[in-house]
Amino acid sequence: MKRLIRTVVGSFPNFDVNDIESSILKIIDLQLKYGFDVISPGEQRYDMIAYFSEVLPGLKHKDNRSYITGEIKSPIELSAFSKFHDIELVKNYLKQREETNNKIKITITGPITLGFTCATTSVSYGKGNLGPYSSIIDVALYADVSTALKPIAEELQKRDVLVQIDEPGFGAGYINYRKFSKEILQWINEYLTPELKSENTIMHVCGRLTKSLFEDIIVKFENIGTLSFAFDGFIEKDNINIISRKVMEDHGKKLGLGCISGANAVLSDPETVKAHIAVAVEKIGLDNIKFIHPDCGLKVISPEKAEMVLKNMVEGVQLFEETI
C-alpha cells in the first residue's frame, strides 16, 4: 500500500497563550499524534506579514500593522529571523522524542503578498509613505522584496528544511498577473528562487485558480517543484477543473493537494476527504501528488477545530490508501 505524505500548510492557532515555545511544542505533538510526515512550527510568533516586517530593512511593524519606511533590503543579520530559532527548537524536540523520520517545513510570505500588504497599509493608514516606490504597483517594490527574501529562503534550505512560498495574493487579485506576467516570472525565477532546490520548494496559492494563472504563471516558476492548491473550500471546489496532468508533467511539477478546509462552517468528513483525493488522482495521476494537506493555514480557527481538521484529513487519507 502506497503511503501518501501528510503535511499542513503552515499556521496554527495558539495552543498556549502564556508561552510561545510551549505552544510550538504542543503543535508538534498534535501533528505527530496524527502521523504527519512533514511538520510545521505553526507560525506562533507573528502573522505572515509581521515575520518579515520585523526583520527586513525598509519595513516596520507597529500597532499590529506592517508598512514601508524605505528601500526594502535583505536582513542585516539573518539570525534575527525568528523562524531560524524555531527550526532548532523543533529539531531538538524531535530528537528528544526520538522522532527521526519527520521533515520540517517553513513558510515564507511571497513577494506579491508581502509587498502589496505593506504598501496598502502605508497608504491606507498613514503609517508612512511608500519610500522610494512610486505606487502600490511599482514593479521595483516587488523586485526589491523578492531580492530581500532570497537569502532567507536559501539559508532555510541550508538548514535542511522544506521551503514553502505562500502567495494568497494571487487568488485575492493583488496584482494584475496578466499585465505583469513577465515581471512576476522574473521576480520569482531570477530574484527569489534561482539557487533553491526545486524538490524542496513549494508554492502555496489559496483561493480560486484560473486557467491563465495556472498555465501562464504558476507552472512556469522554475525552481518550485510542488504547487499547493485548495480543493475543498466553497470558492476552491472548481480548482480541480483547472489543473492538468499534461501541464503539470510538461513543467515537472507535483501537486500539494488541499483536501479539507478549516474555513467551512461544517468540516468535511473523512469520506469527503477520500473523494477529493480520488478525483485528483483520476485527474493527474497518483505519482503526481507529492503532499496531502488542509486547504490553507489554520491560524484563525480554534485549537479544537484545528485538531478536527487534522483528524478528519488523516482518516480520509487512510480510507483512500486502503483502495490502492
Keywords:
324 residues; alpha/beta; 7-stranded parallel beta sheet; two-stranded antiparallel sheet; 11 helices; globular
- What structural class do you assign from the helix and strand content? alpha/beta
Strand content: 5-15%
- Could you spell the SSE succession in H and E letters? HEHEEHEHHEHHEHEHEHEH
End-to-end gap = 6 Å
Q: Strands, helices and their partners?
A:
Layout: H1 20-33, E1 38-39, H2 50-53, E2 59-62, E3 65-68, H3 82-96, E4 103-109, H4 111-124, H5 139-158, E5 162-166, H6 168-172, H7 181-192, E6 201-205, H8 211-217, E7 226-230, H9 245-250, E8 254-258, H10 270-284, E9 289-293, H11 303-321
Parallel strand pairs: 1-4, 4-5, 5-6, 6-7, 7-8, 8-9
Antiparallel strand pairs: 2-3
Give a written overview of the molecule.
- Helix 1 (20-33) crosses helix 3 and helix 5 runs parallel beside helix 7 (181-192).
- 47% of the residues are buried.
- By secondary structure, the chain is α/β, with parallel strands linked by helices.
- It contains 11 helices and 9 strands.
